[in-house]
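Section 3.1: Structural characterization of target chains.
Under the original work plan, the team committed to producing a structural model for every single-chain target entering the pipeline before any wet-lab resources were allocated. The record below documents one such target. The sequence was received from the expression subgroup and is listed exactly as submitted; it comprises 491 residues.
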Amino acid sequence: MDDDSRYEAVRSRDERFDGVFFTAVLTTGIYCRPSCPATTPKRQNVRFHPSAAAAQAAGFRACRRCRPDTVPGSAEWNARADAVARAMRLIADGVVDREGVAGLARRLGYSARQVQRQLTEELGAGPVALARAQRAHTARVLLQTTGLPVTEVAFAAGFSSVRQFNDTVRTVYANTPGELRAAVRRGPAATGGPVAGIPLRLAHRGEYDAAHVFGFLERRAVTGVEEMSGVPGRRTYRRSLALPHGTGVVEVDEAPGRPGAHWLECRLRLSDQRDLTAAVQRVRRLFDLDADPWAVAERLGADPLLGPLVAARPGLRSPGVADPEELAVRAVLGQQVTVGAARALAGTLVAAYGKPLPAPDGGLTHVFPEADALAGAPLAELGMPESRRTALRTLCAALADGTVVLDPGADRAEAERSLLALRGIGPWTAGYIRMRALGDPDVFLPGDAGVRHGLRLLGADAAAADAWRPWRSYALHHLWNATAPENEENA
C-alpha cells in the first residue's frame, strides 16, 4: 500500500488494516488504528507508521478512544517465515524482556546489529523499542485490572526500573501510572463485580467461528491440564500454563461480551505477574486471534470446490497451541489412533509425569510434563507399542537438547526437517506439528484420513490444494468439518 491507499482505509474506517499500520495525526500528537471512530483528520496532517513502536518513537501518544495498543497483531507475522516475522513472534512472547536483544539475536541465528537493522528498516523501530511498546501495554493492563502496587506493576511488565516505567507510561499514554489507574476506577470498569484473575479482552479481526475452535479444543481436552464447561455457545475453556517464571491458569469464554464484539473474554491467574505478556501471546496463538479472516476467505472462498464450505463457516480459524512441545508429544501419542484414544493417553501421561500446580484449580491439577522429564521415562503406563514409546522418548530428547526447536521464532522448514530425521516421526506428524505448534497457515496433510474423505466429498484430489496456498491449514479445517469433526485424525 502507498500512503494514499492507507488514507482511504482511514477515511472508510476499515478495520481490516488494524494492526497493519498506524495513523499519526500531527495536529493532535496522537496515533490511532485505521478504524478509529474519531473525525477523519485532513490528509496533510496524517503520517503513517508500520508499528505502534515507530509512532511512539516519533513522539505520538496512543489514542484513548480507539486504544491502538490493543489491536490484534499483524497477521503478516504468522504467514511469513523470514527473520523479521520470526523476530516479531519472539518479541511478542517476551524474549527481549527475558533475554535481551542478544538473546533474541542468538535464537534467530543473526548478530544483534543485523536484527536491529532489519527490524528498523521494515517496522521503523528496533527490538528494544518494539519490546518497550509491548511493556507499556502490559503495564496499562496491570494498572487497570489489578490492585498491584505501582512498583510491582513496573517490574511485572518487564521494566528494569521504576523511572523507566514512569517515563514510558507518560510518553505513551500522556498520563502517569496513577492517573491511568484512577481513570478506570472512575469509569464503567469500576462498577462490575469482583473477577478472579486478570480480566482481558483478547481482540480479533472480523468474524470469529468460536463454535469451531471451542469444539476442536473440547474434543481434545486432556484431564488435569484442560477442561471445558457450559453448553455450545456458552462454553468456557480452561487450562494450565507452564510459563517462564512460574505457572498460570487461563479461562476463555466462547460467547462475546456483547453483540458484535470483536474479542474473547479471558481471565488469567498467574503465580508470577511477569508472565502476563507470555501468557497472553500463548493464548492468542492457541485461539488463532491474529489471523486475517478476510484474506483467507478471499482466496479459499473464490475456489469453486471449497467456496461453499467457506461461505457456510465464516470466520473459521486454525487453532494453535499454548505449548509447542506439549503439542509435539501429543501428536506422537495420536499416531494411528482416534482423537479420544490420544486424549486418554495424554491424560495418563499427565497423571504420571506432570508437574502439580501449587494448588488444584477446579479440574486443573498439573501442567503438562516437560520434555526432559519424558526423555528417559519408561512410559510403561501408556500401554503403547515399544516402537511408539521409543519414538516419544527420542522426540523428547531432541526437544530437551535443542536438536528440534519449536519456540515462536523457530525456522519452520528447519524444524520440520529435524522432526523428519527422528525415527518414528513421519510426514503427518511433522506436518501437524508445523501447523499447530509453529502456527504455519499453509500446511496440507494429504495422508490424513479425514482430509482424503473431505476431498472425495468435493470430487477433488490432493492436487486441488495448490490453489489454496498460502492458507491450506484453514482448508484442512474446512475439509474436516465437511466430513464431521470426529473424522479428524489428529491429537
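The first strand starts at residue 22 and ends at 25.
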